[in-house]
Here is the input.
Amino acid sequence: QVQLVESGGGSVQAGGSLRLSCPAPGSCMGWFRQAPGKQREWVSFISTDGITAYEDSVKGRFTISKDNAKKTLYLQMNSLKPEDTGTYYCAASWVRYCYKTEEGYTRWGQGAQVTVSS
Here is the structure.
């Protein structure tokens, strides 16, 4: 069983960029984040067919992608804002549809910290 371990987190100033990566064993792979004191929220997903979706606040700034040969999931985060600060989780699902919630995601990484300072 492939363990999900996120990498690529760190601290950047506002306007900077980071790229997160994670193994991608599932048919649907998602990224979620949890800001301090808030509930975990969905950020993006990518399906087996390459269909992607984004939470409104990250549209145009974040790009999800998957390297099928390397079986690796990425989240390129550009123009980062302080409100993007949080713990980012990758998650894998094997259900037919990708959801914009935690539904169907049965394997999770331990999280990677992203801190954006103003």
